[in-house]
Amino acid sequence: MALKLFGFSKHVIFSFIKITILLILNFMIKKADSGCNNSVITSITPIQHCEILTSLQSQSFDGHLSLQDNEYAAKDFGNIHHFPPLAVLHPKTVSDISRTIKHVFEKGSNSEMKVAARGHGHSLQGQAQAHQGLVIKMESLKGPEMKIQTGEFPYVDVSGGELWINILRETLDYGLAPKSWTDYLHLTVGGTLSNAGISGQAFKHGPQINNVFQLEVVTGKGEVVTCSENQNADLFHSVLGGLGQFGIITRARISLEPAPKMVKWIRVLYSDFSTFTRDQEYLISLKDTFDYIEGFVIINRTGILNSWRLSFDPKDPLQASQFSSDGKTFYCLEMAKYFKPDEAEVMNQGVDQLLSKLSYIQPTLFLSEVSYVEFLDRVHVSEMKLRAKGLWDVHHPWLNLLIPRSEIHDFAKQVFGNILKDTSNGPILIYPVNQTRWNSKTSLVTPEEDVFYLVAFLTSAIPFSSGENSLEYILNQNRRILDFCSHAKLNVKQYLAHYTTQEEWQTHFGSKWGAFVERKRAYDPLALLAPGHRIFQKEGSTSI
Ligand SMILES: Cc1cc2nc3c(=O)[nH]c(=O)nc-3n(C[C@H](O)[C@H](O)[C@H](O)COP(=O)(O)OP(=O)(O)OC[C@H]3O[C@@H](n4cnc5c(N)ncnc54)[C@H](O)[C@@H]3O)c2cc1C
Ligand SMILES: *[C@@H]1O[C@H](CO)[C@@H](O)[C@H](O)[C@H]1NC(C)=O
Ligand SMILES: *[C@@H]1O[C@H](CO)[C@@H](O)[C@H](O)[C@H]1NC(C)=O
């Protein structure tokens, strides 16, 4: 119950008490001469934070610094962690950001003031929050205007705070579009590039971090640096998948391709897991194959949140969800082929050919044709429906795992066959990728095998409920899944991971940990940036 109401773990509460005692002492000694009397400052505000804020307030910005009404910056899509900042910067220019960070850096060596870039706030566990620190609202950074370069290697230059949906709309005007996506487009460039950006195109093009030509970054020292494969390459690789630890992405140059107009969208069902994964692996191994390949698990599907992401073709409601799975487990393979309307015939032949090689349950072939935008923005349709029912702003205790191909059967047997009783709390995505052509120099951590599966438990908990729809129940289920992985010694990596100790992070990064720490020293030596991940905390003996 305490967990649900306050969103703090035991660990956090202990640190909190420790900090509070220290700070009250500090406060009693220094308040008189702090010059810090804003209403957001409380008795636990470290005195140095007040000083930094006061001097920041005297700076002139193209945008502005806000000390009031910042509660939203303590919220995210996960809706589990809530840590309010002291101030929010609404930058209009890159120099607003660099000036701010330089300022905190210069004052910073004896302060604990942290800075978090906030994209669209769709993190799951407070990753874009800065407790008693400063949040930079990246969506305010509108400039530079999106610039599209056509030609042999087309690209678009966008602000780090831009939403992917806006990039899609803008580039389509030139008949172009980015190659690699996330399932949901109302996320920012800086937010997804800090993680990876993995979706049904990643088997072909790699994740979004593989499709970037250049970045402009403000480091943890406040320096503005342009970087790419050829220029400041180490910073470039650090920042991609770097969890915001090395700098703030203010501009990205994203690779484009000619955009299709239409999408053939296909779903088929399997009852046998091995047949399902064999077909998925077959499809991603072909040169001439679908443009998008995903899949999901359906276990004894009943319950209120089923509609999430299962809506298919809004015009023709022939849906996989009509297929009842009472008491049974099914696996749905989801594929898409892009095309231009005048190429429909050739496309259909190609699709028939591919489908003829698959071993799904024959009567479960669901076909639909939608526009490219409808296809890419499909989750937004579910969002609107869930919002209307008050089921969007609920808790989202999501768990994302990357599982080596050699271990996926053991995993499925135990997790889908035993731990989970049904999928009524939200969809479980499952699809393979082959990472041989992914850039291995980025900060992203993946399992070591070429082929691994993304398994995403996209659960929602109903507020103030008990039993199987409650946050506690789902968190406990996540724990059982992770416990199984560690007892069975599966070489699983979490995606969008969240840990509370540096030891856990060290295990997560494995052989990449040393380089990660080195890069932190080089680009954010005071560990100012992205504190919500809890990788580099000042307290404790392992901090840098
Ligand atoms: C409905 C939904 C569907 C999703 N689907 C997918 C999916 O298909 N594939 C996938 O890979 N992910 C997916 N995600 C996860 C998503 O990529 C992450 O949650 C991402 O962090 C959200 O982006 P955001 O712009 O809201 O970032 P935020 O949550 O605001 O920030 C994320 C992290 O990046 C840092 N950050 C933000 N902006 C910048 C910047 N400009 N420079 C440096 N650091 C920055 C923040 O400090 C924070 O640590 C999904 C999330 C949701 C809610
Ligand atoms: C499937 O769900 C129904 C309704 O929640 C439940 O009564 C039934 O026991 C479940 N079946 C299995 C095999 O878990
Ligand atoms: C992964 O891709 C590489 C390069 O295309 C290929 O050689 C390899 O066989 C693939 N691995 C699997 C398991 O399909």
UniProtKB/TrEMBL annotation:
* InterPro entries referenced in this protein's UniProt entry, alphabetically: Cytok_DH_C_sf, Cytokinin_DH_FAD/cytokin-bd, FAD-bd_PCMH, FAD-bd_PCMH-like_sf, FAD-bd_PCMH_sub1, FAD-bd_PCMH_sub2, FAD-linked_Oxase-like_C, FAD-linked_Oxidoreductases_BP
Name used for this protein in its record: cytokinin dehydrogenase
Which UniProt key words apply to this protein? Answer: FAD, Flavoprotein, Glycoprotein, Membrane, Oxidoreductase, Signal, Transmembrane, Transmembrane helix
Membrane-spanning ranges? 12-29
Q: What is its EC number?
A: 1.5.99.12
Q: Which organism is it from?
A: Vicia faba (Broad bean)
Q: Which terms does the record give in the GO molecular function aspect?
A: cytokinin dehydrogenase activity; FAD binding
One Gene Ontology biological process: cytokinin metabolic process
Residues annotated as domain FAD-binding PCMH-type: 81-259
- Source domain of life is Eukaryota
Matching entries from Pfam families are given as: Cytokin-bind, FAD_binding_4
Give the reactions, separated by semicolons, that this protein catalyses. N(6)-dimethylallyladenine + A + H2O = 3-methyl-2-butenal + adenine + AH2
Q: Which cofactor does it need?
A: FAD
State the similarity comment: Belongs to the oxygen-dependent FAD-linked oxidoreductase family.
